[in-house]
Amino acid sequence: MQAGQIAGSIGAHGRWGGRFAGLVLALGAVLGAGLATAPAVADEEKVLNIYNWSDYIGDNTIRDFEKETGIKVVYDTFDGNEALHAKLRSGHTGYDIVGPSAHWAKRQIEGHLLLKLDKSKITTYGNLDPWLMGQLAKAANDTGNEYLVPWLWGATTVGINPDKVKAALGNLPMPDDAWDLIFKPEYSSRLKTCGLSVLDTGDDVFPAALRYLGKNGFSRDRADYQAAADLLAKLRPNVTMFSSSSYINALADGSICAALAWNGDIGMATQRAKQAKRGVKVVALVPKGGEFMYFDTMAIPVDAKHIENAYKWMSYIYRPEVQAGIVNKVVHANPVRAADKLVNADVRSVPGVFLKGDELAHLAPQEALPDDILRVRTRLFTAFKSGQ
Ligand code: N2P
């Protein structure tokens, strides 16, 4: 809040009426004018605190930014929207940039937890893919893209080690729809023998189960959640690990053979396995039954202390060469089309990640849920995990 706004809000309050409010408003105007002309930017401490998803940045992204700007980046990570949301809700996160998925950011915008962006300060804003900006606006109800800019995006799917899966299935043929591997016990019970991981969040697992049952993945009907929980109860004995991050290496080193997971993370496992040269293969499948897309973003918390540095980071991130550095490492779909030709050919050809044409038609966006339904889903997900 700026000085003028503070004075405005105090002045609007009944008991601050009359001459005193006038004085405060005048003071606000003076301070406001001061803020507008003072070189506040130059005075900002050379620090930037970022809270982003794990396994989501290039090898040199931070180091190069620090070298160029002299700004020290403190980079913390999470692997679920729930953790970030709880922090934002309790306030004083200490972060200048956070990375909510768009459908969670919708609730954070509604809760006044995020700052309206001054896009004129993001010098590379023009590099952003208009299709993706439209998807972000829809998923977060952020008309005009006022609060969010994109990080990376992808879809929730099934990743497999084809050799191990074939061996585990034996005489059972690969199913037509990859989701059968997860939701049909005759498949999941065999995959258990070579290791089956499931994302550690109801935000991805329930929509997949609901959609498999032919229901809206983001249904508002409690009965639908019970039906999905019944389906998941049959999967539970065959899950060997719940993970939203360590499954990447587990796929890459062959210690699991299948995962309900994020396609870009699976793509990263594909690359890590290739680089390790131990003959492990990993593939992100594109299920016929469709996938839910996630759109991860950058946003500035309302109480951020280093806002100018945040804009510098955003401006830097959307340079094509910086984007390519990120994508080459984390194998995710990205928001800057001019970076495509800079991404290594072997990364661009990782299967199941950089979806196009027909494949896009089977994708649906994740959605925000009202609190009561979210509570039902969270309770049922906890019960699923504990096997009750
Ligand atoms: C992070 C993968 C994407 C997170 N490693 C899903 N929002």
Give the key terms.
D-Maltodextrin-Binding Protein, domain 2; 13% strand; 3 domains; disordered N terminus; alpha/beta; 388 residues; binds pentane-1,5-diamine; 7-stranded mixed β-sheet
Strand tally: 10
Oligomer: single chain
CATH architectural label of the largest domain: 3-Layer(aba) Sandwich
Q: What value does the average pLDDT take?
A: 90
* N-C termini distance: 48 Å
CATH topology of the largest domain: D-Maltodextrin-Binding Protein, domain 2
**Unreliable stretches:** 1-40
Provide the list of bound ligands, each named once: pentane-1,5-diamine
CATH class of the largest domain: Alpha Beta
Shape field: globular
Tell me the strand percentage band: 5-15%
By DSSP (H or I, 4+ residues per run), the number of helices equals 19
The CATH superfamily label of the largest domain reads Periplasmic binding protein-like II
Roughly what percent helix? Answer: 40-55%
- Secondary structure class reads alpha/beta
Order of helices and strands: HHHEHEHEHHEHHHEHHEHEHEEHHHHEH
Question: What is the gist of this entry?
Answer:
Helices cover 48% and strands 13% of the residues. It has 388 residues and is an alpha/beta fold.
Q: What does it look like?
A:
This protein is α/β, with parallel strands linked by helices and 388 residues long. The chain folds into 3 domains: 3-42; 47-153 and 295-350, D-Maltodextrin-Binding Protein, domain 2; 155-293 and 367-386, D-Maltodextrin-Binding Protein, domain 2. The chain has helices spanning 3-12, 18-37, 40-43, 61-69, 81-90, 102-110, 130-140, 162-169, 179-183, 185-191, 202-212, 222-235, 247-252, 263-276, 307-317, 320-330, 345-348, 357-361, 371-386; strands at residues 47-53, 72-78, 97-98, 149-160, 196-198, 241-242, 258-262, 283-284, 291-298, 363-365. The structure holds pentane-1,5-diamine. Pentane-1,5-diamine is lined by residues 53-56, 101, 262, 264-265, 294, 296.
